[in-house]
Amino acid sequence: MIQTRWLGRIRYEDALALQEDIVARKAGDADAADELLLLEHDSVFTIGRTADQSSLRDVSPVVVIGRGGQGTWHGPGQLVGYPLLDLRRRGSDLHRYLRELEEFLIAVCAELGVSAQRREGLTGVWAGERKLASIGVGVRRWISMHGFALNVCGAMEGFARITPCGLDGVEMTSLEREGAGAVSVESVAHLAGVRFSEMFAFDEEMEKPA
C-alpha cells in the first residue's frame, strides 16, 4: 500500500527535508510504508549534481540536489510528485522505474483528455514536440526520492529564464494549454494519487529485502 499526501504549496527546502527524513526511516525499516508526496512549490530553480550548469544561465537562487538531470524550474501551476519507494521490492531496476513513471504520467494526461507520449532517448513526457512533464530521480540505498513535475496551468514564466533540462529550443507546455480545460493543481493531484497507487502497487509475495 502507498500512502499519498497532498501537502499544498510548500517551500522546496521543506519538501526536501521531509523526503530525507522518510528515506532515512525507510532505509532502516524494510516494513515502512511507501509514500507519495504531492505538492506545489514556490518559484525555485534546481539542478542535479553536474559541473555543467549552463542550462541555468544566470538565474538565482539555485538549489543543487542529488538527482539526475540538468536545470529546471518549479513553481505555481505545476504538480510536483515525490515518490518515496523501496525499489528493492520492484526489482532494483532504475531504468524500469523511470519508464514506469512516464507510463503513469501518460495515463494521467489521457484521463484529462491530453494525448502524451515518450520521446526516444529523452526522459520525460511530451505532447508532440512540447514538453509536458519532467522527471528527475535520486536513489539512496534503493529508496527513491525526487520524482516528477507535471505542468498543469498558469504562465510558467520561470522556464523562459533557463534552458529546461538542458534542451536547446524546447517548448514547455501544460495540461491547460493542451486542452485539458479548467484544471487545478489540487484536482490533478487527486487523480494522480489514485492512479499512482494503482500502478505502483506490488505483490506482497515478492522477495523482501534482506
Walk me through this protein's architecture.
The chain has 210 residues and is an alpha/beta fold. The protein has a single domain (2-199), classed as BirA Bifunctional Protein, domain 2 (2-Layer Sandwich), CATH 3.30.930.10. It is built from 4 helices and 11 strands. The chain has helices at 12-28, 94-111, 176-180, 185-199; strands at residues 2-10, 34-41, 44-47, 62-64, 72-74, 78-84, 117-119, 122-127, 130-140, 143-151, 171-172. The strands form 2 sheets. Strands 1, 2, 6, 7, 8, 9, 10 and 11 form an 8-stranded mixed β-sheet that branches. Strands 4-3-5 form a 3-stranded mixed β-sheet, with no helix packed on it. The model is unreliable at 203-210 (pLDDT under 50).
Characterize this entry briefly:
The protein has 210 residues and is of the alpha/beta class. The chain has helices at 12-28, 94-111, 176-180, 185-199, and strands at 2-10, 34-41, 44-47, 62-64, 72-74, 78-84, 117-119, 122-127, 130-140, 143-151, 171-172. It has a single domain, classed as 2-Layer Sandwich (BirA Bifunctional Protein, domain 2), CATH 3.30.930.
